[in-house]
Amino acid sequence: MSDQPDVELEARLAEQEEFEPPESFVEQANVTDEGIYEEFDENWPDAWERAAELLDWEEDWNQVLDDSNEPFYEWFVDGKLNASENCLDRHLDDRGDEVAIEWIGEPVDETRTYTYSELHREVNEFAAALREQGVGEDDVVTMYMPMIPELPIAMLACARIGAPHSVVFAGFSADALAERMESADSETLVTCDGYYRRGEALDHLDKAREGLDNVGHDVTTVVVDRLGDERTVDHRGSELDYDALVDEQDGAEVEPVTRDAEDMLFLMYTSGTTGKPKGVKHTTGGYLSYAAWTSHAVLDIKPEDTYWCSADIGWITGHSYIVYGPLALGTTTVMYEGTPDYPDKDRMWQIVDDYDVNQLYTAPTAIRAFMKWGEKYPEQHDLSSLRLLGTVGEPINPRAWKWYYKYIGNEECPVVDTWWQTETGGMMITTLPGVKKMKPGSAGPPLPGVSADIVDTNGDPVEAGRAGHLVVNKPWPGMLRTLYKNDERFINEYWDEYSVPDRDQWVYFPEDGAKIDDDGYITVLGRVDDVINVSGHRLGTMEIESAIVGVEGVAEAAVVGGDHEMKGEAVYAYVITEDGQEENEEFRQEIIEAVEDAIGPIARPEAVVFTHELPKTRSGKIMRRLLEDIANGDELGNTSTLRNPDVVHEIEQKVQGD
Ligand code: 6R9
Asked: What sequence ranges are listed for the domain AMP-dependent synthetase/ligase (predicted)?
C-alpha cells in the first residue's frame, strides 16, 4: 500500500453516516438477536439473571433486585460466590493450559505468559502470603503498581481472601496515594521498585515511600522487584519482598472465601466535583456479572480469543475489561507495560500482529495519536486477526472513528463506542456489535436492560437533537453501591439532582451532557460538572485548584479544561497572585510542580495564566464557561452579568499573547 491516503475512499467514508455490522462479524457474534432489547424490557429486572448465569455461584440468589431501600439497591440477593474462583478455578479443568495473561513488557522481547493453571498458582501463593501478613476478610489492600503481572495477581489474591482492593494509578503522586490510603484505612500496600517508560527505568518506590510518610497509621508494604539489576532504589529496608513472601508459600492453596453477592469486591477512587476523591464501592455479584456480561455481549469475547484492552489497570477500564470481565470468561487477556510509541510508533500493531489479537479496546486519545502518526504504521503489519474494535473514555469524533474503522479494522470490524464510568462498573450505552448499525460520533442506544434518557433541568425529556443532561432511570447490576463510608455523599453526588423520592422516582445523574437522535442513539457531549477529561483521564478541577492555592504567593486560582487536539482537554489554570509575588517563569514552574506533586504528571497545566481578577458573577461565582471560551479562543458568551466584565478582555489578551 502507498503512503498516500486513498482520496476516493476517504471522501466516501467522510460522507457515510451509518455503518451496518459487517456480515462476517454477525455470523459468529455472541449476541445477534435484536429481540434481546424487548426481552429485557418485558422481563425486567429478571432478565438480568442472564448476566449472573455467566458466573458460577456457590449459592443461588433468591431475588434478582431488592429495591426496598432506594437508592441502595441490592442485586442477586443472598447469592454467594468468589470472584477469583470465577476468574480462575472454574476454568482449570477445560482451560488450565490455555493462556490467561499474555504480558508484554516495554523492553522489546521481555514477555511473560501465564496459563490459567499458572495464574491460579501465583494467585494462591500470594493470597496465602497476604493472609500470613494478617490480611483478613474486608481489610482494604492498596495497590500502587504499574502494568506488571503482579498487579492482577494481587487483585485476584485479594478477591480470593475477601479483602477488597483499592488500586491507585501508578502515575498518581505520593500525596494522592496517601490520601486514598488514609481514606480507606488501608493497612497494606503492594507496590514495586520501578518500571520502564520509553526505554528508561523509572523509580516508583521512592514515591510510594514518600506517600507512606503521610499516612497516619502503620502500613505493611510489599515490594515487587520489577527492575532487577536496574533497580533504582534498594528495598531491603523495612519493606517485605514479594518474591521472598511467595517463595515461602510455594504451592500453597487457599480456599476461596465465600462472599455474599453484595460484599465489596473493590474500591476505586475517582474525581468528582468537590476536592476529595470519591471511593466508589463495587460488589462481588453485581459487578462481576455485569463485567462478564458486557464483555460477552459487547466485546464479543470467546474463550479462544486473544483480547487486548490497552488501558491501565489503575483505571476502571482496566479493572473491568483487562482483569475481571475477560478472565471471568476464560479468555486470553493481553497486558502491555509500555507506551504506543516505543520503540516506534508501530508498537501496538506489532503486538496485534505477533499475538493475533482479535479484539482491541482503546481510547480516542490514542486513536487521535495513531491518526496523526499516519496509516503507514499500521500498514507495516498484518492486522487481519482483528474482529472487533472498541473505544472508551471520552467522546470520539467521527473522523477519528472512521480512521480507526478503516485503517485498523479494514472496514471488517464493528467499532463499539462505549459510554460508561467508574461508577457504572461497566458499559452502559453502546451498540450491540452483532445487532445494531453504527453511527460514528454517537455511542449508540442504551444496552438492553439499561434505561437512559436526556432531560432538561426540570428532569423532563428533551426533544431529539437538543442537548440536555444524561440520566439513568433504572438500576443495573454493575452500579456502585455507595461511596466508601459516605452514604450521604453518594446520594448528594448522584441522586439528588433528578430523583423525586416522594414519588419513588430514583434517577441516577452521571454528570454528563448528551443529545439523543430520533432513533434513540445517544451522543455524549462531555462532563457538565467540574471534572475535565485529559487523555481519557478524569481529573477534578477543584483538586487541581486546591493544589495551586497551596503554593505560597497564590491568592486564588480557577482551573478549566480547554480543547486540545490530542488530549481532548488540557488543564488551563488562571492564577491570581498575592501582592508582592512576582509573576515570572520560575513561579509558573513552581505552580506546575505543585500540581504534579498533588495529583501527578497527567494533571500538569498546559497553561498558567496570571491575572489580577477572575470573571465573577454578581453573586461572586467564578464564570468558568468564560474561562473555557478564553482557553479555546472561542467567541465569548454574554459578559453583561459579570461584576467585572473588563477583566475578561484583559485575560483574553494574556492567553492570546502566550
Ligand atoms: C470508563 C471511564 C467517565 C467519564 C464519563 C464521560 C467520559 C467515557 C465515553 C465518555 C463520551 C464515551 N466518557 N466513555 N464520553 N463517549 N464513549 O472512562 O470511566 O474514568 O470514570 O470516566 O468519561 O464523561 O462521565 P471514568
From this structure: 89-476
